Every structure is written in C-alpha cells, then in structure tokens.
UniProtKB/TrEMBL annotation:
GO cellular component: ribosome
InterPro entries: Ribosomal_eS17_sf
Protein's recorded name: 30S ribosomal protein S17e
Domain of life, per lineage: Archaea
Organism field: Haloarcula mannanilytica
GO biological process, one term: translation
Length: 65
C-alpha cells in the first residue's frame, strides 16, 4: 500500500483534530497511538503518519484550531 504525501497530511490532521490531547512530542508514544487508532497494516505508512504528527506537536502546530 502506498500513500501520497497529501494523504498522510490529511490523515494526520484528522487524527490531531479528533484526539489533540492524546498525542505528545514523543515519537514512541505516538507510534503506539497511531497503531491503535488507525487500521493500517503498512509499517511505512504508520511511520510516515507518526512522524508527521510528532513534527506537528513539536513545532506547536498540532493544537486545536
């Protein structure tokens, strides 16, 4: 399964909007959350999604709008 960058961004933004208090700046914590919340079998997509969410939280852009 392959996802283009815009799909990763959309999915990450959707998760951050739905669960803003769950995600942290810690990659390992976010990995477990993404694995639990998203039913994706692809390691690569989960990793990209987790990285996107973690970067958003670390830069302060992952806050609720």
């Amino acid at each position: 399964m392959d996802a283009d960058p815009q799909e990763i961004i959309d999915a990450g933004d959707r998760l951050l909007a739905e669960y803003p208090e769950l995600f942290t700046e810690q990659y390992e914590t976010n990995t477990r959350l993404v694995q639990r919340l998203v039913g994706v079998d692809s390691f690569r997509i989960r990793t990209r999604l987790t990285g996107y969410i973690t970067r958003k939280k670390r830069t302060g852009n992952g806050t609720q709008r």
